[in-house]
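Section 3.1: Structural characterization of target chains.
Under the original work plan, the team committed to producing a structural model for every single-chain target entering the pipeline before any wet-lab resources were allocated. The record below documents one such target. The sequence was received from the expression subgroup and is listed exactly as submitted; it comprises 678 residues.
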Amino acid sequence: MESLSYLYYSLVFEADTDPPHGTISLPNFLRSAQLRLASMAWLVLAIGLFSLSLQNIALALKTGDRGSEVETLQTTLKTKGYFNGPITGYYGPITTEAVQQFQQVNQLDADGIAGPATQASLYGGEAAKNTINTPLNPQSEGLLKYGQNNSQVRQIQEQLQQLGYFQGPTSGYYGTLTETAVKAFQQSNGLTADGVVGPETRRQIAAGGQGETPAAQAANAAETANPEANSPFQMEGFTTGGSGLEEALAPTTTLKPQPPGPDADWEAATRPQTISSQAAIATPFARASQRFIAQIAEEQPNIGLAVSFSNGSQRFTADTVPPNRATPATFRQTSFTGEPQTFNATAPAREMAHRKTIYGDIAPKSIVHSGQGLFFAQNMMYNHSITVYDRNYNLVKTIADTVDLQKYGYPQYAGIYRGSPVEASFSHSGQYAWVSNYQMYGTGFNHPGSDQCTPTQGTDSSFLYRINTQNFAIEQVIRVGSVPKFVATTPDDRYVLVTNWCTDDLSVVDVSQGREIKRVKLGRYPRGIVVDTRSETAYIAVMGSQHIAKVNLGTFEVGWLRDVGRSPRHLNLDPTGRYLYSSLNGESQVAKIDLASGKVIAKARTGNAPRSMILSETGEFLYVVNYHSNTMTKVRTATMEVMQTVSVNDKPIGITYDAERGEVWVSCYSGSIMIFSA
């Protein structure tokens, strides 16, 4: 019946060429004779539904609606533990997903539309009363589980943190980190490890538990571990396997001790100590160092690089193969004659570690580093803002998306308008940020696009903002297509490229002219963009297909990398320009593409719905956020091996990299930004 009422609602108002935003009230229906019959028909239908015992009948709320009814919906969903975004009064994707989760739990049609049946259940129906997600009062002994958000969850987090099980922020939100900590506690204390805090789990947590804490477990494991496996070489993360080293090593290898403090005898401390090749082979540290140099030479054949390692007592210094492999690689006082590829080795990888979580009045769809120490978070229409942070995690500026379009050369628009910032891209120097707006809000914008749209619907165009990063002022506004998503600036700063989700095309903005000069047709749902270092070719992920477009930026002709995988979303190009990486949202994988052949040569499974990615500065590692898994994954690009996966807050969707600090910033749509060591 709920679906029937919504279908009727849709049919009545689909033909309206100027639909008001948000929930339509009865007085608005009666403003024209044309709509009186529709309103009467709706009232008749409402009476019929009432006769079927559906109480508190209201118009169906759906994606795109706004108003006090939506605020009430969000608030109620939040108290029941389903909704974790900010209370905005706008019915967006977070609200839709929360409604779907509520519907699934309560055995309703999970269409994400808050129709009469859903509202009746949510605001007082029996299904809502019986669900275990009902908010808990302070004295309740009810269940605590994933998705809830209240003071009791915060108390459990604090207790688990004191016991050494929980390392995340004590936010009161029961997410992946909390669930993992609860399971670990349950396993240590002989309880069923289901990740749900019931009466017995709650009692044992309050009592401090009976099992070993994580710290005690680690200490015991260290005492009983194999001495070789627990040696300083292993603790540094170096692998110790390998073959062919006898042939690759020269007769001697030089190792240097770790330099002491500033008051010690520096000359004596750094005097080389020569050991035989056999001793070097038997030393895990030396062997791992040799293998690491081999890997660099294999993956970066055109780069000469001096490398130094230390394990606390020994230092190993070496040179990689010089550019173009003109001469063999040389170690300090020793020649290296072996071919690097014979080792087939991989370099040691540093473990990612959580450093900071930023909260606030944010709902960041993306996070982008300027390259100059500023981080722009785009908060969509949920907050109508761009929040700017520095390397010390401080909020530097909140930029409102409000503009007077007439002042920017659009006289047909009178008054103040708001945007909805989606993505950003910076000029080469970092002086300007180009920010796309999902849609515009104000008089004259009556046909907004959505995440499900076609060019034939005639949805409104939107605008690109240019923001000066010196004073954070919006200096320029440029019209582009409908629902612009990703933005990319060419390395030569000549063009800014924007993918338009609803018009299936690419806007080419000429920076010097300050206007769009070209539209390039691409296909259904274009999204991620990357441009080669010579500013000659742009690669665009066409998410409604299995293909990636190749656009010649001289002629604007389109070629294709075909059949890379389902729903390619985000793209990264390695520093050498040889490999292209694509997240495949429809496969839960990322693909490595050889641009010389145009073929996918490897894939890695990272998590459910991989969204955005970022490469480390050297291209050695790829960091991927997995939207439905609430994780970030670190992938070694040479082998496409998953090195590490860490839990993050709900709905990770954006990611960026800071080479100077060696940090990865992750934006979580649910309202936070998390920073990790890379």
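The chain has 17 helices and 36 strands.
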